[in-house]
Amino acid sequence: MSEIVLTNANIVLADEVVPGSVVIRDGKIAEIDRGPVRAGKDMEGDYIIPGLVELHTDHLEGHYAPRPKVRWNPIASVLAHDAQIATAGITTVFDALRVGMDYEADLTMQDMRKLADAIEASVSEDLVRADHFIHLRCEVSAPDCLEAFSLFEGDYRVKLASLMDHAPGQRQFASFDAYAVYYMGKMKMSEEQFRIYCDARIAQSQQNSAPNRIAVAAACHDRGIVLASHDDATVAHVEEAVDQGIRVAEFPTTMEAAAASKQAGLGVLMGAPNVMRGGSHSGNVSARDLAADGLLDILSSDYIPFSLIQSAFFIGDAVEGISLPQAVAMVSKNPADAVGLTDRGVIEPGRRADLVRVRLDEHVPVVRTVWREGRRVA
Questions:
Q1: How many CB atoms lie within 10 A of CB 62?
Q2: How far apart are alpha carbons 173 and 151 in whole angstroms?
C-alpha cells in the first residue's frame, strides 16, 4: 500500500478552508487530518485544492495548427497541450474538437480525427499528465456536421457534445455590429465580402441547424454522451435545449438565458477569461454579473488554460459573497458532477487524489505541484 502525507497545508474542502494534512493511499484520498502538523511532505502553508476539471478548451487546435496551412505532429501537439493544461492545475480535461466546418476553418474533419486518435494513443500509452476526454463542438449549421459526427461513432472517449450555431444575427453574435468587428478583423474581409459571407452563413443555418440539432441530440442520448447548449440568448433557446435533454448551458449570452437555464436545472458555464477581463470579448453578458446574481455554476478556461485557476482565486475578490470553497467548486466539483464524474472534484475520503498545491503571489496563484490519482504529474 503506497501512502503520501501532505502536511502543513491549508486544505480547501467543499465548504471551508482548514489547516491540516491530506493522506493519500493507493491513488485515493484516505484521510483529512485537521490536527497539528504531522510527519509528511511539508506544504509550507500552501493551499491544497482539488484538481481542476476543464469541460471546454479549444487550446489543442493551436498546437496542431499554429499557423495557416501548418500542421504539427498530432502526438506532439497533444503532449504540448497536455503539459500546459497540467501545469495550470487541470487534472481532467475535455479536449474540444470541432464537428462541422464553417467558412473560416483552416482545419478539416480528417484533422479532427487525427487529433482524436492522438489523444487516445497518448492516453493508452500513458504519455499524458491529465485525464483526457473528448468534447465534440458540433456546428449544427454546417452542411457536413453529421458526416463529421459519424467519424466519432463508437469513440468511447467522447463524453460531451455541444450544439452550436455561429451564424450572424443570433446567439453569440446577435449584434451584426459585433459580428462584423470580430470577423472582418479576423478574416480581413471587405464590406462586400463580409455581406456575401453573412448571407451564406445565414442560409446554411436556416437549412441545416434544426435537423442537425435533432439528429446529434438523438445520437448523443443513444450513446450516453452529455449534451451542452452553446450561446443561448433567449428563453426560447433554453426551452429548446431542455426539450433536447441538454444538461449544461455553455456561455449563455444574456442574463435572461442564464436565469432560464438555472431555473431549468442546467449547469450554467461561463468563460474564466470573461471573469478575469470583466466582460465578454463578444460584448455579451458578464460572468461576474451572473455570479453576483447566483447564476454561475461552472467556469471554463476556453482559450487560456491558466485562466481557470486564476479565476478561482480572483472571483471572490470581484464578486461579493463568493467564498474560496464556492469558487473552487466552480472549477472542480461542479463541472465534474455536470458530466457524471462523481469520483473527483472535491477533497474528501474515497475520492481520487487529484490535487493541486497552490501558493498566492500578489493575488496570482502559483501552481507548485499537481497530483493525479496520487501520482505527481507536474
A1: 14
A2: 29
